[in-house]
Target: Bulb-type lectin domain-containing protein
Amino acid sequence: MRIAFAIFFSQIAQLLLPGARADTECYNNLTSLRRTGDLDELYAQHVLTRGKYMCNGIYRFGVDKEGTLVYGDVGRDEVIQKTGDKGSYLVMQHDGNLVFRDSQDITRWQTGTNDKVNTKISLYTDGSIKIKDDSGWEYEVPLRPDDWDNDDIKPDNIDCIGDTIYGRFNDALFPGDYICTGDHKFGVHKDSMDLVYLYRNDDPKHILSDSGSKAARSYLLMQQDGNCVFYGGDWKTRTFQEVESHAGILRITEKSGKAELSLVDMTTDSVKYSTVLSEVSVSSSLRKSTKVQEIS
Model:
C-alpha cells in the first residue's frame, strides 16, 4: 500500500527562533502552534524560499537572503550550494528527493533519494539531518564538517526530535524517531517497529505492538483531530490516546526522575491524558480507532 501525507496549508507563519541570529526566520508551515517558533520537519511538497529555514535549537538549514543553501549553528553557516539567484528554493518532493533549484527551476543540488514514498526530512536536536520513510529506511544528509560532528556517542537508531509533537499539522514519529527529555525517550523502535519507552541503556519497554511478526511499516501520528494514532503492521489504525481537540500536542517531561507523557489541549492549556511511562502496562491488543483521518 502506498501511503502519503496529504497536508495543505493556507499560510506561512514567519517566526524568529529564540536565541538564533537576527536574520533567521524559521519556516513554520507545519508548526504554527509551536510556542518556541521552531520547525524541525519538512513533509512532501514543502518549500523553503529565500530567508526561510528548518530550525531546531541552535541549528538551522535553509536558504539565506541571497538565495544560498546553507547549514549552520548560531555562530556560523556552511555554504552547501551558492547560486547568486535570490529566487532559489528548496523543495521536499513527493518521491522523497530533497532538491535545491534556482529561479529557472534548474536543479543545483539534490539528495538523490527519489524512489521513496511517505517520506519526511527532519532536523534533529543534535544538528543531524535525515530523510526517512515509515519502513525504517533513512538517509543522513551529509552536510556537517567533521569538526561540527557532535553525534559520536548517540546510537544510530535513536533520533530525538525534541520533547513535543503537534497535532495541528500531523507531526509524526517514524522508526528511530523519539521525543526526549533527559535520559527518557518515547517513540518508534527502529528494529521492532513498536511504540516504546527507553530509559538510559535499559531494554526498551514496548508500549504498543502487534502480536505477530515485525511490522513492515510503522509510525506514530499526532492527528489534526486530536487523536494520537499508531499505524503499523496490518495497517489497522490503533488509537494510542485521544484529546478531542484540533490543538492537541503530545509531550514528554521529567518529574521527580520519572518520564511523564501528556496529551495537552493547547486551546485551553489543559492536560487531557497523562501517564508515567515506566508504569504503563504493555498492550498487544490495541484499540481500533473510529475517528482517525483517512490517509491514502
Remarks:
- The domain at 160-284 is CATH 2.90.10.10 (Agglutinin, subunit A).
